[in-house]
Amino acid sequence: MRGWMDLVKNTLSSKTSIVCTGENQRWSDYAAPTPGAVVVVGDENDVAKIITAAKKTNTPFLIQSGANGWADTFTLNSQGIIIDISNLKTITFNPDKSQVTFQAGVTNKDLIDAAWDNNARVSASTCNCVSVLGATLGGGLSRTQGVYGMNIDQLISLSIVDADGAKRTITPKSDRELWWALTGAGANFGVVTSATYKSYAMPQAENTAWTGLVLFDQSKLEDVVAAIDALTLGPDMQMDLYFTASPVDGQPTVIVLPFYLGTEEVGREKFASILDIGPTLDTTEVIPYNTWNTAGDPFCAAGGRKPSYTVGLKTMEPTAWRNVWNEYIAFFNSYEEANLTTILTECYSTAATAASLKDNGTSSYPFRDIKCHAIAIPWYTSPEIDSDALQFGQNVRSYLIDSAGTKSPSSYINFAHGDESLSHIYGSSLPKLQKLKRKYDPERRLNQWFPLS
Ligand SMILES: Cc1cc2nc3c(=O)[nH]c(=O)nc-3n(C[C@H](O)[C@H](O)[C@H](O)COP(=O)(O)OP(=O)(O)OC[C@H]3O[C@@H](n4cnc5c(N)ncnc54)[C@H](O)[C@@H]3O)c2cc1C
Predict the structure, then answer these.
(1) Which of 92, 214, 218, 338 has a CA that sits 20 to 30 A from residue 186's CA?
(2) Listed GO molecular functions (predicted)?
(3) What would the pLDDT profile of 399-409 be if each residue is shown by its tens digit?
(4) Sign of the torsion angle spanned by Cα atoms 28, 29, 33, 37
(5) Which of 2-11, 108-117, 178-187 has the lowest mean pLDDT?
(6) In the chain, what is the straight-line distance between the N-terminal and C-terminal CA atoms, in Å?
(7) Taking residues 234-247, what's their average pLDDT?
């Protein structure tokens, strides 16, 4: 451990510090990494210095930005270091607001707020606390992906530190195959310290959407699921389905969160097949871009144990979802401390993302034609509950895999648990990714996040 520190201690910027490992708060405590040190980086250049020193001393390391990754693939122990890049927060828009360059610690909220202040829109993800690049390097789902494409489709260039500690700027033209690998399996191929991303100039008055919580009694579950299954989400539409404690009475309930990039009147028409089922509460309204993610803020609460499981869905079957509801209720009712347990299903328009399939493999993200991603999130504090929580998540996953409408199970890397087969995570990109891994990181230094070998 001391070896790497001795190599860099007199070379790091004064903005970089080493903090007590006990202060390393993450979104989920379940299977969290247990490093010997956490280096909080204050300067992009220090990332390269630390990775170089770690390589020379054979010290394992993990990059941490938003600290939201819940996978159980971390093997980092007291021999290893977390390189915390969350303080790298610079954001710069170009004069016509068509591009934005930002550092790796920038969260969705940071970028959205900056875009709002610049009369622009960027296509970021749906939870404020997530780092833009943490989500993007695995694909990056976004409410506006039907119009603009996924987060990876926003990338123009990436400044990375490679597995050897060398700084490089990568564009789709400069290194086609490394770009392909970084855009879907990024964490295995480099540490991105900053990126340039597409931005869309837009006056604040036009930068709005119709959205909000719509609550249903659970007796309507089959109707709601059938309506979601039948609904083709246009490019300007997105929606979420939640099984969670009601904001009204704390009891388990079914919530739909429709999202439409337009007026309330048209939004209601677009989602009429769901709204006509008869909600018990409808809080939808037209709201500004810088508040679109606010409804998801409770999910950003850090701490507690949240061993989550996911399935990518092309279809949703009411019978399977009744079984999922029953699993949810059983777990929710078994443990008072698990009352934040949630099943979240995010559904996206595949209009723009499926179209970019035709670009013939500019990115390694494999699931552009998946409509919905379901995530079972058991949420509690006592490790004694772990085995029941894991069983609950696995049961939900089984019901959904059987009704997913896909040839084989698919698990979006950023939502996956870590026990899946690698082909479920990387899909058809797996063989080529493994080949490129041998080329770009033969010593497997970048091997904490769904390692490719
Ligand atoms: C509350 C919540 C909401 C979410 N909502 C969405 C969503 O709307 N859309 C979506 O697509 N995903 C979403 N996710 C999943 C999210 O994309 C992943 O958890 C993502 O990995 C988090 O990145 P992070 O930097 O915040 O967390 P971290 O734990 O810091 O990062 C996760 C892993 O990503 C890698 N990584 C992070 N930054 C870099 C970097 N700069 N360079 C190289 N590797 C890096 C590291 O291997 C790290 O272990 C959500 C997660 C949570 C907890």
Answers:
(1) 92
(2) FAD binding; oxidoreductase activity
(3) 999 999 999 99
(4) positive
(5) 2-11
(6) 25
(7) 96
User: Does position 355 have pLDDT exceeding 90, yes or no?
Assistant: no
Which residues are bridge partners to 281 per DSSP?
215
Q: Which residue's alpha carbon is nearest to atom 38 within ligand 1?
A: 134
Residues 6+ apart with CB under 8 A from 204: 116, 119, 288, 289
Q: Which residues line ligand 1 (CB under 6 A)?
A: 27, 62-69, 85, 104, 125-127, 129-131, 133-135, 137-138, 140-141, 186-187, 191-192, 299-300, 414, 448-449
Fold of 91-203: 3.30.465
Each domain of the chain, given as residue ranges in start order, spans 2-84, 91-203, 208-424
- How far is ligand 1, taken at its centre, from the CA of residue 191, in Å? 13
| Parallel/antiparallel/unpaired status of strands 37-40 and 81-84 | parallel
β-strand partners of 192:
160
CATH architecture of the region 2-84: 2-Layer Sandwich (3.30)
- Where residue 202 falls (left for φ over 0; alpha for ψ -120 to 50; beta otherwise) is beta
Beta bridge partners of 377: 342
CA distances (Å), origin 237, targets 147, 257, 311, 364, 410: 9, 11, 21, 25, 23
At 92, is the secondary structure helix, strand, or coil?
strand
Predicted confidence (pLDDT) per residue in 207-236, tens digit: 999 999 999 999 999 999 999 999 999 999
- Whose structure tokens read 């879907």? 184
Q: What average pLDDT does range 39-51 have in this prediction? A: 96
**Are 172 and 364 contacting, i.e. CB atoms less than 8 angstroms apart?**
no
Q: Express each pLDDT in 258-299 by its tens digit.
A: 999 999 999 999 999 999 999 999 999 999 999 999 989 999
Instruction: Output the pLDDT for position 3.
Output: 87
Q: Average pLDDT of 375-398?
A: 98
Q: What is the pLDDT of residue 14?
A: 92
Out of 68, 86, 348, mutate this one to test ligand 1's pocket (max ligand atoms within 8 Å of CB): namely 68
CA gap 152, 367 in Å, rounded = 13
Q: The domain at 208-424 falls in which architecture?
A: 3-Layer(aba) Sandwich (3.40)
Cβ(393)–Cβ(309) below 8 Å? yes
Rounded to the nearest angstrom, the distance between the alpha carbon of 275 and the centre of ligand 1 is 32
